[in-house]
Amino acid sequence: MDLGIYGRKAAVAAATAGLGRAAAAALTAEGVEVTICGSDEERAHDAGVELGADWVVADLTDPQAAAGFVEEARSIMGGLDILVVNGPGPAPGRVTDVPPEAYQEALDRALLAPVHMCLAAVPIMREQGWGRIVAITSLGVRQPYMELALSNTARTGFTGFLRTLAREVARDGITVNSVQPGLHATARVAAVYGDNPPTDDIPAGRMGDPDDFGAIVAFLCSTQAQYLTGAAIPVDGGAYQALL
After folding, report:
1. Could you say which of 26, 100, 168, 229 would form a disulfide bridge with 218 (CB–CB 3.0 to 4.6 Å)?
2. For residue 58, is it left (φ>0), alpha (ψ between -120 and 50) or beta?
3. Which residue stretches, if any, does this entry annotate as coiled coil (predicted)?
4. 47 domain-assigned
């Protein structure tokens, strides 16, 4: 299927590995010009070369630096049509084990930095009357992970922001959606769960493939998805079981 985004310009945050990289790869395969970022210069360079994308170094734990990535990507490409919001997740831990002071850092990483990225992109997209914002969040927004109290908290707040933003910019030709990954075969999942990720409750019986996830992100950026906005889509092999 031709997604109708050939030649569009996309900024993909935290795309040196994992789901961010899969999203960047899916967009480049559609002929999208992509600029990625990572916190490590060598990894960002290597990923950019392998993907055929421009790359910059950005500290996405800092809200101002996160906004700066979007602005730098626009400058490099001479425009911006698509923003894939992604970033490093907060440290794992249960509510009763996490100290209160850890919440501010978690909010900077998983709420405020993503908000700043969106706010940097919206005026550009409004001016041109077209844009796609797709945020990679977590299934923990719907169904909290016991080991990820900080992520559950911060990303739920960001989901509320996205739903509100979607309503405000829909008439400007901008769609805003989030994709909520369950367990996928990434370094992040391995760091949290080791060699025994909890797949018993996943109807598909396995972890997800990052490349499949990237294809879903690319579709949300397509012309065919122009009437889909304000959605928070679980991509989890059927793990989420509630009716709503």
Report:
1. 26
2. beta
3. none
4. yes
